[in-house]
Amino acid sequence: MKIDVKFAGVLVVGAVATSAVVVLATQGGGGKSEDTAGTDPLPGTGPVAPAGTGDGAGAGAGAGAGAGAGSGTGGGIGQPAPAMPLPSSYRRIACPKATVTVHGAVQLQEKLNTAAPGDVIRLAPGRYAGQYSSQKSGTQAKPIFVCGTPQSVLDGGAMSKGYGFHLENAAFWRLIGFTVTRSQKGVMLDGTSGTVVQGLNVHDVGDEAIHLRNFSTGNAVQYNTITRTGRDNPRFGEGVYLGSSHNNWGQLTQGKPDASDANLVAGNRIIATAEAVDIKEGTSGGRLVGNVFDGSQLSGDGVNDSWVDAKGNGYVIEGNRGAHTVKDGFQTHEEYKGWGTGNVFRRNVIDLGGAKGVGIFLGSDGNTVACDNRVSGGELTNKGKCS
Length: 387
Prior knowledge:
The chain contains two helices and 30 strands. The protein is mostly beta strands. The strands form three sheets. An eleven-stranded parallel beta sheet has the order 1-2-5-8-11-14-17-20-23-26-29, with helices on one face. Strands 3-6-9-12-15-18-21-24-27-30 form a ten-stranded parallel beta sheet, with no helix packed on it. InterPro entries: PbH1, Pectin_lyas_fold, Pectin_lyase_fold/virulence.
């Protein structure tokens, strides 16, 4: 049974007043980190084609929410953007024509400080030394875009502190196509809604790659490539982290469950030292679909021994593909009373290899494992039945 003892040790790094300045990274040593992002974790395979993709809302996140919600400059700490529904689509988003192209760190942060609905910030190829943040918001009709290529590299300079890209109490952003590396945490969304994180290369980070917390709702994390997490602490090296541990609610959410609900995680390729996707207690109503997980770098240590740990409620986990694991493919747990239930697993393809666990370990009650999940190298579930 997994006991969650992970603790967000750098709670306020970059959380207060960071939107006013760019923190320039030191370049001591002059060494270049190994760039393994962009490689296919499972060569020759892709995400299982999910059912019911449809066209939906082309922008994905925030579909169906009222136009203009969260269109201000974002509130202070403890004032998240308005709650948004689960994105109805995960169709890829194309970047519009740039309204401005930036070429350096100071210029980038200046544009993030003054970003307005409809802005399209293009990152020219190059190294952007620093860690970046904004508390501005777009609207549903006019989101704010930050677009680049894998050669547009946000380099935080140190894997022991800070967030590579931080949105706080913001709404309706589109982060597309660039690289984030060498920060403690790659991309952090705090109190952020209606936002799409797409096609990023996030690698060589101290802890987790992409984290949605503090009532972040209705966001889409899609088609990203995540590798080399947990370089500072493998135990905290999740690929995508939804919500926060109940141990941290006192610091983050005034003691309330972190209802970072209705978030979509789709089409990502993840190699991580902790779970590829960690679904925390207090979150609900999300969807994981069409992701590819490679657990060959899992740290194990009695904690990180599966690709997905579902401790939230009411998630649909479907059409994912995984290989290499320490113990199980997927797990559920009741980490906090009343949580870890109502989750549905269907059409996942699970290769346990030489692991000693099962495809889907049910450590909590009230979850559904469909018989169309496929597993090789072991049993489908520890409960011995599917539906």
